[in-house]
Automatic annotation (TrEMBL):
UniProt-recorded name of the protein: DSCP-N domain-containing protein
GO CC annotation: nucleolus; TRAMP complex
One MF annotation (Gene Ontology) recorded for this entry: poly(A) RNA polymerase activity
Organism name: Dictyostelium discoideum (Social amoeba)
The DSCP-N domain, residue ranges: 37-155
Pfam families in the record: Dicty_spore_N (PF04562)
GO annotation terms (biological process): polyadenylation-dependent ncRNA catabolic process; RNA 3'-end processing
Sorted UniProt keywords: Repeat
């Protein structure tokens, strides 16, 4: 009976030895396969030392990656590291870039590429009928690595006239190259040009700034006639006899309205502010999308100017208080320099809107006598809303409403 027990222990011992041998052979077969150390995890890489060794590389985004390579490859790379980045390493599966500070052998599953430095000018997308924009190659914000700068790509983005383009206000912080700025376009971070000096437009188009967006783009040129004649067909309600003839004269890129026969039909006026930049009869008081850009010089003296797209508003407000010695106390308070103390309402008030308060064609409105007057062109007035937190109108202030 004792002999049988000893035999059983020997059999178990041999079985354990055989299992250990099989495990060792399996590990070595993994290490010596076609892709070698590259297929091993960090734990197996440590177990495979001294055949394999981990190499830590820096990627675009915060954090590092550990690659398992043959020990000779790792030692050779570390021994010959330079003071500057030499090349970039790209994972063919994930597309993630890593920095290489020295020479290294080819790594299965990875691609060694030069530091990207191609520009939109070199890509020459225009010759292929496309525009060039810079796109991010990293998922994180503000990648600082030279291997992770936005790369130029050819696209038909700026030429898609019929597509709906949405410029968002989400934080956009791609490290764009000089002359480009980051903008959210359809929820995609994109580097777009800021100067026409770096944009080459197709024939029949010209480079113009997108007001309020801070970028430039190519727009179709509307040809202007040197001299043209516009005939006005008067209807039965018009008192003019015959047709009124408008002669358009262009001098130094300016157009003037000169009526050779009476004037435009009733309810119309001659205007050069239109898409054709020509003298045309348009309905009186029409809103001109192509009017001149708003100038702060149109605001009353001392008022604050705020541009609003192509238009703007003027606000009656003075930041500095007058000296208490020069300004009487107004029922426990001190008025602004452009206010007066109303002894009836017992508060500091602004003057009310008058017909000549604002520049021609600008509208003056005022919420409350204690609120400053505001001048604006009528086309942007509907976009101005009073905060819901303001108190309601008082009956004795109703005269100010709508002025």
């Amino acid at each position: 009976m004792k002999i049988n027990i000893n035999k059983q222990f020997k059999i178990i011992k041999y079985i354990i030895i055989i299992i250990l041998i099989i495990i060792e052979i399996e590990n070595k077969s993994k290490i010596n396969c076609l892709t070698g150390c590259e297929t091993l995890s960090s734990e197996l890489c440590l177990a495979a030392y001294p055949m394999c060794m981990s190499l830590i590389l820096t990627s675009c985004c915060p954090g590092q990656v550990s690659l398992c390579l043959e020990i000779d490859t790792v030692i050779g790379y570390i021994s010959n590291k330079k003071l500057e980045i030499q090349n970039c390493l790209r994972n063919l599966q994930t597309g993630v870039f890593y920095e290489l500070w020295g020479d290294i052998n080819e790594i299965p599953g990875y691609e060694i590429i030069p530091i990207p430095n191609i520009t939109c000018k070199e890509l020459n997308c225009e010759s292929k009928g496309f525009d060039c924009i810079y796109e991010s190659v990293a998922d994180c914000e503000e990648p600082e690595s030279l291997c992770c700068q936005p790369e130029p790509v050819c696209t038909n983005f700026l030429k898609s006239i019929n597509s709906k383009i949405i410029f968002g206000r989400t934080r956009c912080d791609l490290p764009c190259v000089d002359g480009y700025v980051c903008r959210m376009v359809n929820d995609v971070k994109t580097c777009l040009p800021t100067s026409c000096d770096i944009v080459q437009c197709d024939v029949g188009t010209e480079c113009l700034p997108l007001i309020g967006v801070g970028i430039v783009s190519c727009f179709k040129v509307i040809e202007n006639l040197t001299t043209t004649t516009v005939l006005i067909n008067n209807n039965s309600n018009n008192n003019n006899n015959g047709s009124g003839e408008i002669i358009v004269e262009r001098t130094n890129q300016t157009v003037s309205c000169e009526l050779s026969n009476n004037s435009c039909p009733s309810g119309f006026e001659c205007s050069t502010y239109n898409p054709l930049n020509s003298a045309l009869c348009i309905p009186y008081g029409s809103f001109n999308f192509f009017n001149e850009i708003f100038e702060c010089g149109n605001c009353p003296t001392g008022w604050i100017c705020r541009k609003f797209g192509w238009s703007g508003v003027c606000i009656e407000f003075e930041r500095n208080l007058q000296s208490i010695n020069n300004t009487p106390i107004c029922f426990g308070g001190t008025c602004l320099s452009n206010q007066f103390c109303n002894t009836t309402s017992q508060q500091c008030e602004f003057e009310s809107c008058e017909d000549d308060t604002c520049h021609n064609e600008m509208k003056c409105f005022q919420y409350h006598p204690s609120s400053p007057r505001v001048c604006s062109y009528w086309e942007i007035t509907p976009t101005i809303k009073f905060p819901s937190s303001l108190p309601p109108f008082f009956e004795h202030f109703i005269e100010f409403e709508g002025k």
